[in-house]
Model the fold of this input.
Amino acid sequence: MSLVVECRDLTLAYRAGAAVVRDVSLDVSSGVLLGLQGPSGSGKSTLLRAMGGLMRPVHGTVTVATDERAPVPVWMFARHRPGAIGWISQDPIGSLNPLWSIRRIVGEPARAHGVRSADLARLVANALNDVGLSHVNDTARPGHLSLGQCQRVAIARVIAGRPQIVLADEPTSALDPTTAVGIARLLSRLLHTGTAMVVASHDDVLLRSIATSIVRVQDGRLELVDHTVSA
Done:
């Protein structure tokens, strides 16, 4: 395993408000799934945003290891390597471009990686099949799908894109229990490709079934680290 994401002394806040995350340091390596556990408002989603380069720290750094000599800031990594960070949002409908077809949404990260058109159709079809959406018309737009189907489209996009990092916020919240179990197994399979993954969830059972380690986030601080064995 090699270090992929490194957070050091992170303090995060929205505008001039009070800090949401305080003095957090953590590492995520390739092939490792870090679970973020904690109640609503604890700072889990804010931490994910910073790790994905969507939020600049008030203090501290988030860096990503690359082939270059030194790690680079995550916002720079995200800008120059489109598709290398995979997102699964807790708002699946809002995370999908409403003007794009399902086929284009799922295939876009892989296309950004340079996958040829001849291979892209196969990747998209396989990813949709993996999440149980092989029956869905891939020329349809997100507005024609249910909330749960949109969440599975977002997961299919990650599967097809094979990103270096996956950041998932409540990735199974809109799914029925049986489907959620299958999706959890799919996410676990990505670890075998060397992907680094961070999953924030209220679902302790889900985290314990797939996480390599679990960190509890409470009032913006890391309180407990529980090392587990992935299923």
In short: The chain is about 35% helix and 25% strand. The beta strands are 3-13, 19-29, 33-37, 59-64, 72-73, 85-88, 165-169, 196-201, 213-218, 221-227.
